[in-house]
Amino acid sequence: MASPEPQSSNFATTYRTHLRPSRVTIDDSSQRETNNTQEQEQQTRKLSQKQKVSFCQSSIVGHLSPWPTYSSGQTILHNRKPCSDNYRKRAGSWRLQSLGITKPRYLEQLENYLRKELLLLDLSTDSAQELKLQPYREIFDFFIEDFKTYKPLLSSIKNAYEVMLAHQREKIRALEPLKAKLVTMNEECNERILAMRAEERSEISLLKKEKMNLLKLIDKKNEEKISLQSEVTKLRKNLAEEYLRYLSERDARKILIADLNELRYQREDMSLAQSPGVWGEDPMKLTLALKMARQDLARTQMELNTMKANFGDVVPRRDFEMQEKTNKDLQEQLDSLRDDYEEVRKEHEILLQLHMSTVKERDQFYSELQEIQRTSTPRPDWTKCESVVAGGPDRWHMLAEGKNSDQLVDVLLEEIGEMLLREKDFFPGLGYAESIPHFLRFDGTVENKKPTKKDVITLLKDAWKERLAEEQKEKFSDFFFSFLERRFGPADAMAWAYTIFENIKLFHSSEIMSQFYAILTEKMSESVYVKHKETVSQLLKEMTNVDSQNEGQLTMEQFSTVLRNAFSSKKEEKIQELMEAAGWHPNSSNADLLDYHSLFTEDEEDQSMPFVRMLWEQYMDEKDEYLQELKQELGLELHEKVTLPKVREALMTIDPSLDKQTLNSYLSQAFQLPLTELPEESEEKEEDTVIKLQTVLERLQKTDIRRRGPREQEPTS
Fold first, then answer.
1. pLDDT single digits (tens) 139-175
2. Does residue 190 register a pLDDT over 90?
3. Stretch among 163-172, 196-205, 703-712 having the lowest mean pLDDT
4. In this structure, which of 22, 95, 350, 677 has its CB flanked by the most CB atoms within 10 Å?
């Protein structure tokens, strides 16, 4: 369809006239929009005002062509149905003919105008889509104005879309408060959840306190019950004594009455004999009266004996009623105590159930905490532990001093394990298997004695004192159980053995506990601990000898001399480490005095001072280096086997200062052979005593093995 080229003034008038109603319609449909949207539309109109005028002027001057139907040799077919076959064939031929036709000028102007408008828009704002839609609206208005035939249809299409867009904007504006309300409700719910968790934690703490109070009340009631039972026993004993006393008094009273009757009878006989009227009576009559009196006496005596036999053990009614009343009062007290005990027992069961649920929640929270700690990357805030650990911030600072995060985790695990261990009332027996140590072989349950950490350490120190004082004939585990039997008796020895074993297995940070556990489980030889104590004692003795004035102080030069004399095989850096552990710094003077007695004391947690700990750490490091050097000298892998002659030769190579006795003790420990059965060097054979290198190193690791002298330097070429 071809349209005539419009004039400049007519086209501008038509553009303004037809563009305004559509905009008025749009403004009427979007009156409920926010002020922000109206301001953006006004800004868009102002930005594109100049370009609209220029575009209208250029389109007025140009030629309006209905491309692509415009062609010089093209004819328009009328009265053809679009869906007929002829129409399709002719449409195909039209497309082929129009391939060489260039794009109309009016279409190019519209595309250039749209491109310029889009470039002028700021698409970085939130309303970028609204601004981007405005140029397309204007292009559509141009089409409506220029194509008069389709103007009503195109206007209705545009109005329908505008109404739908206004409706969608209204819906979005109505949903925005719901979105804000949803965010507010989410924050309120989170705060409520946190408040509920805090309330649950406070309730748990209150329930724990109430549980402790109830346990104390139960103990108090049990003590009252025991005291009442002892009082009842005492009353019964007093009753028996009173009963015996009354029986003796009754018998004495009866004897006294009989004596009185006898005296009365004798007095009557004497009065009858002395009265003058008696001699005048008839003797037969007197004889008969005497006979009848004797019969009455016999009958009375029989009745008296019968009464004695029937009522000899009868308690007086007054005493019986008194004892019955006392018994009734005691029975009422006993019933009251039973009722109180039943109530306390029910409350205790309820508390146990609450405790179990609390323990489950605690375990769940602990597992969640571990999962969070495993997945979270930030470093933990260890100051939070100050309010959790028993003893408060002071004790936590003392426990955390000089420890890294891994060691602090061990400290927390020990604190948690100590709490769980104290909550256990019984330990399950491990049975009588061969793998179970002798002092733990028991079937059933044993009582948890629940000692404090201080009590366990004190008990271990007493055991070591007794062990070091004897000749060490029996095995250490057997001695340990014998010591418990002597200390607590055979009945409680097994319970104390389980209790102490669980405690020393838990506290890895305690030196005496970890060493005692390693020796008890045969992971370390007893001679290692004994030798370490002898070394520390000998070192203190040498320092005391150097302190001639007995002032308890040494200069750093004297202290360094004592260390070098005592540990002649140590390297210089090891001596420096010991001096720094004792409190010496490189910047300090050698004339500074050192209180050497304080180096061998223990702190509040029964831990050795840094100087003694450094001695132990250096000893373990030197042992590892010694065994690693032995492995390198043998030149074998851990799974490969080694013979006794090769181990002897390697030990003599890396440590030529070894004497024969020490060397034989090392070989005896490594190959588990008695010293009497060790073959001499001349009698050794390569095929004898073959064992894995890993087993040899593990056995030597357990025993007290150390370098006796420096390794000889190989001559240089």
1. 888 888 888 888 898 889 889 888 998 898 898 888 8
2. yes
3. 703-712
4. 22
- Residue 237 corresponds to which amino acid? K
Q: Tell me whether the omega of the peptide bond preceding residue 68 falls within 30 degrees of 0, making it cis.
A: yes
Calculate helix-pair angle for 693-702, 660-671, nearest 10 degrees: 120
Assign residue 156 a region: left if phi > 0, alpha if psi is -120 to 50, beta otherwise? Answer: alpha
Q: Is the pTM of this model over 0.90?
A: no
Residue 379 has what DSSP assignment? P
CA distance 415 to 583: 30
- Domains of the chain as residue ranges with CATH: 8-167 (no CATH), 424-522 (no CATH), 524-629 (1.10.238), 635-717 (no CATH)
Whether 500 shows a pLDDT value over 80: the answer reads: yes
Integer Cα distance of 618 and 706 in angstroms? 11
Q: How many angstroms separate the CA atoms of 678 and 667, rounded?
A: 8
Residues 6+ apart with CB under 8 A from 63: 5, 104, 105, 106
DSSP 207-254: HHHHHHHHHHHHHHHHHHHHHHHHHHHHHHHHHHHHHHHHHHHHHHHH
* Overall size of the chain counted in residues: 717
Please report the sign of the dihedral spanned by the C-alpha atoms of residue 434, residue 436, residue 437, residue 442. negative
Q: Given a cut of 90, is residue 609 above it in pLDDT?
A: no
Among 65-69, 77-81, 407-411, whose mean pLDDT is lowest?
A: 77-81
Percent of all residues in the chain with a pLDDT value above 90, rounded to a whole number? 13
* Rounded-to-10 torsion of CA 164, 166, 172, 177: -140
In this prediction, residue 687 carries a pLDDT of: 53
Q: What is the maximum alpha-carbon separation in the chain?
A: 203
- Here the contacts of 659-664 (C-beta below 8 Å, separation 24 or greater) are 659/708, 662/708
Compute the radius of gyration of the chain from its Cα atoms. Answer: 56
